C-alpha cells in the first residue's frame, strides 16, 4: 500500500512541478512583457507577478532540496544544510501564501459593495491596504524565524551534549514536528483572512442581488457578473488553499504513523499542488492572461501542423 501511495505522490510531484513552472512562468513572462511594452504595471499585475516569481522559487527550492537529500544525504542531514533548507523554503513559501492572500484582499475590496464607512475607507485605499498586509506578513515572518531559529539552536546544543557532538535523525524529526506545528499556526492566519474575504464577498453578492430584485433590474448586471467571476476564482483558490492547510494538520497528527519518506512526499505534494493549481486558476480567471494563453496554444497548434500563424 505504501508503495502505491509513494508512486502516486511521486507522479503528483512531477506533474505539479512541470505545470507549476509553466503556469507561473507564463504569468510572470506575460506581465513583464506587458510592462516593458506599456512602461507601467497595474497593482493587480504587480501582485500576480510577485506571486508567480515567489512560487517559481518554491518549486525550484523543493527540487533542489529533494536532489540534495537523495544525492548527498550526509550533507543534507548536517546542521548548516538543514538550517539553510528550512530557512529558504520557509521564506519562499511564506511570501507565496501572503501574496495569494493579498490578491484575495485586492479583489474583495475592488468588487464588493458595502455602505459601511470603514469598508469605503479601505476600498478607496486598496493599495495601502495591500501594502500594510505585506508589512504585517513581514513582522510575522520575523517572529516565526526567531521562534524556529531559537528552538533549532537549542536542539543542536542538546544533541551535541547528549550525542558527543553528532547531529542525529531523532533531532531532525523533533525539529520537523515543531516546524510543522509552527508553520500550521502561522499559515492559519492568511488562510482565515482569505476565508473571511470569501464569505464577505458572498454577503456582498447576496445584498446586491436582493437590491437588484427590489428595484426591478435584471440580475445580470456588470456588478453581479464581477461578483460571480470573483467568487468562481475564490472558490477554486480556497479549495486548493484548504487542501494545502488540511495536509499541514494531517502531517502533525500522523507524524508517528507514517513513514518518514511518505511524510516528506505528502509535504512536498501538497505544497506543489497548491502552487501549480492556483497558477492555472489565476490564468483562467484573468481575461488578459486567458487570451494570451489561448493565443499561445493556437500558435503552438499551428506550428505543430506546419501552418504559419497569422498575426492577430
Low-confidence stretches: 156-169
The run of helices and strands is HHHHHHHHHH
Outline the biggest β-sheet.
none
The structure class reads mainly alpha
Membrane topology: Multi-pass membrane protein
InterPro entries: GPCR_Rhodpsn_7TM (IPR017452), TAS2R (IPR007960)
Organism: Castor canadensis (American beaver)
Protein name: Taste receptor type 2
3D structure, described in words:
- The protein is an all-alpha fold.
- The chain has helices spanning 2-38, 43-71, 73-76, 79-111, 117-123, 126-162, 169-215, 222-253, 260-285, 287-305.
- Helix 2 (43-71) packs antiparallel against helix 4, helix 4 runs antiparallel to helix 6 (126-162) and helix 7 (169-215) packs antiparallel against helix 8.
Layout: helices, strands, pairs:
Elements: H1 2-38, H2 43-71, H3 73-76, H4 79-111, H5 117-123, H6 126-162, H7 169-215, H8 222-253, H9 260-285, H10 287-305
Question: Short summary of the structure?
Answer:
The protein is mostly helical and 312 residues long.
List keywords for this structure.
312 residues; mainly alpha; globular
